Amino acid sequence: MKPYLRWGIIILLIITLIPVFLQYIIFNNGIISNVSNDGWAGFFGGYIGSIIGAFATIKEIVMESAFQPKWKFQKNLKNHSFVLLYV
Predict the structure, then answer these.
(1) Is residue 67 within 8 Å of 54, Cβ to Cβ?
(2) pTM of this prediction?
(3) Can you give the residue ranges of every domain in the chain?
(4) Closest by alpha carbon to 27, among 15, 17, 36, 16?
(5) Which H/E stretch holds residue 38?
(6) How many whole angstroms from its chain centre is CA 31?
(7) Percent of the chain having pLDDT more than 90?
(8) SS3 assignment, position 10
């Protein structure tokens, strides 16, 4: 199995199991709380969304830093070929 497919399946399982976990552990229990289920849902939605946003930002930074030297090289190559063409 290819690594990206394996990670895709793992992420899909996590995304599928989080709501099930929240339903049975947080919302459907007998623990008395001062906060309503809507409050807890908003809290966990914000918390999980911030984690996903942080991972997406880190991934984008890593990808950007990996491709930046290639872009600089191509830009410098174009500038030098223009100068050589007219010298």
Answers:
(1) no
(2) 0.54
(3) 3-86
(4) 36
(5) helix 37-86
(6) 33
(7) 1
(8) helix
Distance CA 82, CA 79 (A): 5
Averaged confidence pLDDT in the chain: 77
Give the total residue count for the chain.
Answer: 87
Rounded-to-integer distance, Cα 53 and Cα 59, Å = 10
Six-digit token pair at 53?
A: 């946003």
DSSP state of 28: S
Query: What pLDDT was estimated at residue 33?
Result: 74
Tokens 């339903």 belong to residue? 23
Distances 24 to 18, 19, 21, 36, 80 between C-alpha atoms, Å: 10, 9, 6, 15, 64
Whether the predicted pLDDT of 85 surpasses 70: no
Cβ–Cβ under 8 Å, residues 44 and 22: yes
44: CB partners within 8 A, 6+ apart: 22, 26
Beta strands, E only, 3-84: none
